[in-house]
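Running this now, will post back.
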Amino acid sequence: MRIFIDADACPVKDEAIKVAVRHGLPIIFVSNSWMRLDDHPLIERIIVSEGPDEADNRIVELMAAGDIVVTSDIPLAGRALEKQGHVLGPTGKAFSDDNIGMALAMRELKQELRETGEIKGYNPGFTKADRSSFLQELENIIQLIKRGS
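Update: finished.
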């Protein structure tokens, strides 16, 4: 079991590192640019070329069934679920086969509403409650995997 982080805009890098190290899990950060991360044998940094889906493509290429992917990118979440991965958003929302279809539909609807000017902005701000939810859900997922559920 490994943890993959879609790292370019991920607000929970430090939290993910703490949980990964506590459980002795490799954690791989995939991004389009170099970022400062702790030096630790469990932490790996992969930098991909610029492009809208380069990091996503690399994560899907490298991940295996049972790995955990942390991303707010809903299409990437869908691709990771297709490979039998566990997917968690930085706000603590777990994606599953049961909810990914609705998440994709809402993403498309919001994009269309933004393009027509009916709504402005993208996402609400990231809160302490989101950070706490993320930590709890990541811990829950790891415990479920370790128990073989």
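The longest strand covers residues 27-31. More later if anyone needs it.
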